[in-house]
């Protein structure tokens, strides 16, 4: 006897993982230099040197029992203070260490927050296109997962669609900016309008509708584009942050949840998040990494190579006739599939060893995603294949 839902999740790999595994098997046959794998969002810039130095210093200077021992479940006090200091220096946000819960990256943080917000009948909204894992996270929390249709072609937020979908059961809406998969950054104007709508509806329903702000890509914005800090726009925001992409540490599993003091029921909500994490077996985030981030919370990534990739792909592909929203952040392009059927297009691309993720899993059929944290050389080599493909549709 086993849980059928859990079985279905474990037995069916995600489309992205499938493509990635396929790419590996093709690389073994035709050579890795002949496979153009744009499937997976694994950072391609190394962690900052200061991170590696911090790891060495900590291993040398600190008692090993202290390095590897359990920390407090909510996280090491020095780390929480370092993050609060960094957020206050950047946003003057009034963050206190006690408002922060140190988690193991955005994925388990989101899961804990969804569980903390779910009451019987609860609904949680995501805005298409969205990170596919939201669906199992929300549904396994026991809430209904509802999708706000995409705002094509600019990929901001269709506020009238949000308004239509809000009900008295809406517990939260997930906001992910810079966005995976569209690469767009929601403007301050879009977010203020969303805040106004949610505030009005919260008053009407007599309970807060929280924003869950999923922020692994906060630091990845280009051309001076500012990513608004949502708690300053809408206090009923819970931030799920991750160092996976900002410090290129996705395998190390470290991030934080921020529950602003100004959020309604903030103390109880924080406790519910800690409780939900506990019920999922959270003990503490990796202790060594907590010490590392305590020294490195102020670091920002060097975006030079992502930016070069972004510009090259955006300029070359639009010149070929591909259509996409301007990619201001993260490391993704979300492109309209020539011919309209992204699955058929991706399948054709796959025959040429070009691996592109169809948009259906992101709640946005007809588009495909490119993840450009790859080598510049691979991009250059893949361009003729993109050209060949679009020519087949013209
Ligand atoms: N949210 C989004 C939008 C993501 O793209 C990812 C990972 O790619 C995650 C959450 C999970 O990130 P983490 O590695 O911090 O769990």
Q: What Rg is obtained from the alpha carbons, in whole angstroms? A: 21 Å
CATH homologous superfamily heading of the largest domain: Type I PLP-dependent aspartate aminotransferase-like (Major domain)
Question: Which sequence of strands runs across the widest sheet?
Answer: 2-8-7-6-5-3-4
The multimeric state of the shown protein is single chain
Mean pLDDT: 96
The description of the largest β-sheet is: 7 strands, mixed
Structural class: alpha/beta
Structure report:
- It is a single chain.
- This protein is an alpha/beta fold and 394 residues long.
- It is built from 16 helices and twelve strands.
- The mean pLDDT is 96.
- Helix 7 (134-141) links the parallel strand 3 (123-127) and strand 4 (144-148).
- The structure holds pyridoxal-5'-phosphate.
- Pyridoxal-5'-phosphate is lined by residues 41, 105-107, 131, 176, 180, 214, 216, 242, 244, 250, 255.
């Amino acid at each position: 006897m086993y849980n059928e839902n859990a079985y279905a999740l474990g037995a069916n790999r995600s489309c992205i993982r499938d493509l990635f595994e396929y790419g590996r098997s093709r690389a073994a046959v035709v050579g890795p230099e002949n496979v153009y794998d744009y499937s997976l969002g694994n950072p391609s810039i190394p962690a900052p040197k200061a991170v590696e130095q911090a790891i060495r210093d900590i291993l040398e200077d600190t008692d090993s029992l202290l390095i590897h021992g359990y920390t407090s479940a909510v996280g090491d006090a020095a780390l929480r203070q370092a993050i609060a200091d960094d957020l206050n220096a950047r946003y003057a946000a009034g963050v206190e260490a006690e408002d922060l819960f140190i988690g193991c990256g955005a994925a388990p943080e989101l899961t804990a927050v969804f569980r903390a917000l779910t009451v019987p009948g609860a609904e949680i909204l995501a805005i298409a296109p969205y990170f596919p894992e939201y669906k199992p996270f929300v549904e396994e929390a026991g809430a209904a997962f509802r999708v706000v249709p995409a705002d094509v072609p600019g990929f901001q937020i269709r506020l009238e669609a949000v308004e239509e979908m809000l009900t008295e059961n809406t517990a939260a809406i997930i906001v992910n900016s810079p966005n995976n998969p569209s690469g767009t950054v929601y403007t301050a104007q879009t977010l203020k309008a969303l805040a106004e709508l949610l505030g009005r509806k919260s008053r009407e329903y007599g309970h807060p509708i929280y924003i869950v702000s999923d922020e692994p890509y906060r630091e990845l914005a280009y051309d001076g584009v500012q990513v608004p800090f949502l708690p300053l726009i809408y206090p009923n925001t819970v931030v799920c942050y991750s160092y996976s992409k900002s410090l290129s540490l996705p395998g190390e599993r470290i991030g934080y949840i921020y529950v602003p003091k100004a959020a309604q029921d903030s103390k109880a909500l924080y406790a519910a998040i800690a409780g939900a994490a506990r019920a999922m077996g959270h003990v503490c985030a990796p202790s060594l990494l907590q010490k590392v981030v305590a020294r490195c919370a102020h670091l920002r990534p060097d975006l030079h190579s992502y930016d070069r990739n972004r510009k090259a792909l955006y300029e070359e592909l639009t010149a070929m006739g591909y259509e996409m929203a301007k990619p201001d952040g993260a490391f993704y392009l979300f492109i309209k599939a020539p011919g309209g059927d992204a699955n058929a297009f991706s399948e054709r691309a796959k025959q040429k060893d070009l691996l592109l993720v169809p948009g259906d899993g992101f709640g946005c059929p007809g588009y495909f995603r490119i993840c450009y944290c790859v080598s510049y050389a691979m991009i250059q080599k893949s361009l003729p294949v993109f050209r060949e493909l679009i020519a087949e549709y013209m």
